[in-house]
Amino acid sequence: MNPLEQKTQYVYKPGNLEKSEPNFFKVEDLDTDEMVINLGPQHPSTHGVLRLEVLTEGEYVKEVVPHMGYLHRCFEKHAESLPYNQTIPFVDRLDYLAAMNSEHIYALGVEKMLGIEEQIPLRVEYIRVLVAELNRIASHFIAIGTYAIDIGAVTPFLWLMRDREHINRMLEWVSGSRMLYNYIWIGGLYYDLPVGFEERCREFVTYLKPKLKELQHLIIDNTIFIERTANIGVLPLDLAINYGVSGPMLRGSGLKYDLRKVDAYSVYPELDFEIPIGQGTVGAQGDCWDRNNVRVLETYESLRIIEQCLDRLQSDLKRTRDFDPQKIVPKKIRPKAMDFYIRGESPKGELGFFFRTTGTYDIPFRCKVRSPCFVNLSVLPELSRGIMLADLIAVLGSIDIVMGEIDK
Amino acid sequence: MTFQEIKNLVVAKLGEGTVKEIAPEGLQPVLEIPKERLLSIFEELYNNEKTFFDFLSNITGIDNGAEKGTMEVVYNLYSIPYNHFLTAKVVLDRTAPEIPSVSDIWKTANWHERETFDMFGIRFQRHPDLRRILLPNDWEGYPLKRDYKVQEFYHGIKVD
Predict the structure, then answer these.
(1) Where residue B51 sits, what CATH number does that domain have?
(2) Would you call A10 and B62 a contact, using CB atoms and an 8 Å cutoff?
(3) Would the pLDDT of A44 be above 80?
(4) CB pairs A-B closer than 8 Å
(5) Which of A113, A345, A368 to mutate to test the interface with B (most CBs of B within 10 A)?
(6) Where in chain A are the domains?
(7) Cα–Cα 20 to 30 A to B48, which of A8, A16, A185, A370?
(8) Alpha-carbon distance values, A43 to A99, A348, A387, A396 (Å)
């Protein structure tokens, strides 16, 4: 065999796995009752390639050690070598279920650094919020649907995928792709909304409202679902804050904390919406049921936001012939030298970008992403100590992780 | 509390000359803290009823390159009840970067610090579990360092 060819192949040696991803627990240190179970990386309920090393005693989980990095695509290294606008497609691929939200926050951050956030036309900002909220609904649908599968119900998943398909198609109509949009640009948008989009979107809102009620009856109020999730994986509020948990998980634990309200970025202060929180209706506050209930209630609020956006977009911010969404897109993006941290509410929680700029280059000196899933997942070992092995999947699903964002 | 008030509070507790303010043209001022005082300052900020920084948003590692010979660790603190921020940073020596771990104060720091260690090789003293988090355990080098060279082969697979 050609030696060069041989070198490009994976050379199997018995110790390779032990060297690259060693287990945290050594077999010789375990008690006689204990056993290490390896969950993943290929397992549907882990929502991607996450490997959990579970130390069990009978049916009970004693300790969980997550191993990740299987989907590491060097986002931060790429971001350090590309101009700001060319990083946006990479930002899409972080949380690939909610690309619009990530784009929105990223673009907002760079605009703030450039000092042009005041000049963004109101129509652009309303379109951004509109598509971001559509995407938030899609993301929550995936979260709830896959969660239902995790705990043994397939029907809701199919229903939710059917409804999510409408959103995917609408966003494809807007941007040209189904999941990874590159639609929100720094300083504007790729393109204005297509003609007829507002009407189609309204139709969708009227279609979805009764479906959400159905969803609530089918899953959230379902006795089997409640039996399966109430009092499971209870996350107390102080622990959640200490672990940096954010998003629906933190709200599930009972804190009215939503960055759309707290930071009041974009046009969110002009919009009227509530922040649903977990109240321990069927079990303890902060259990798996609360987290999922918060997600369902949030889709109602997102629909309210969408309706208000549509009202504005169809009245005083109507499409005009000379409206150019790329009008103030900067040709050259070179912020002054500074450290800047921007954060916003993605469907998973607080998505943040930290920039270090030098003021002399068009590329950031350092761009670090604070991904909500990464931080939320870090609380999993704490949540799963002492629960049943079957409940571990229920707890993991309720965190709503996306591996693209965790592994960056 | 504004940045200046927080700074004055820290200075009053720990004495003059402990902290430095850096904000040439930035929108968000940065507080530079010496490495030796990091834990005591953060404990003060966490426990003091006036500051009450209960939420650690983010930890960032930065490598300034061999010329400057420094690395930095940046902390983004946030207080949920008071709604105020603080960006604090520590400058480290690049040859043997070491810094005390803050995971005793905020448990979320655990994974953030592991990631920083993974990407920059910064050692966090008294960290409960300092292993690589995203890269494989036997990966060579720290990818986000300025002088990083990708290894040629990994288990016989060509890396490019």
Answers:
(1) 3.30.460.80
(2) no
(3) no
(4) 122
(5) A368
(6) 75-407
(7) A370
(8) 24, 21, 20, 12
In the predicted structure, residue A306 carries a pLDDT above the cut 90: yes
pLDDT at A3 over 70: no
pLDDT digits (tens, 9 = 90+) for B28-77: 888 888 888 888 888 888 888 888 888 999 999 999 888 888 999 999 99
3-state secondary structure at position A184: strand
Give this prediction's pTM.
0.91
In a domain, B143, yes or no: no
Q: Which of A268-277, A332-341, B2-11, B100-109 has the lowest mean pLDDT?
A: B2-11
Q: What residue of A is the nearest CA neighbor of B107?
A: A243
Helices B38-47 and B3-14 pack at an angle, to 10 degrees, of: 120
Measured between beta carbons, the chain B residues lying within 8 angstroms of A382 are 107
Q: Does the residue B148 lie in any domain?
A: no
Cis check: omega of the bond before A41, within 30 degrees of 0? yes
Structural domain contains residue B129 = yes
Residue A208 has pLDDT above 80, yes or no: yes
Q: Please give the residue range of the domain that contains residue B48.
A: 3-135
Beta carbons of A244 and B106 less than 8 Å apart? yes
**ipTM for the complex shown:** 0.90
How far apart, in whole angstroms, are the C-alpha atoms of residue A81 and residue A75? 10
Domain spanning A75-407: which superfamily? Cytochrome-c3 Hydrogenase, chain B (1.10.645.10)
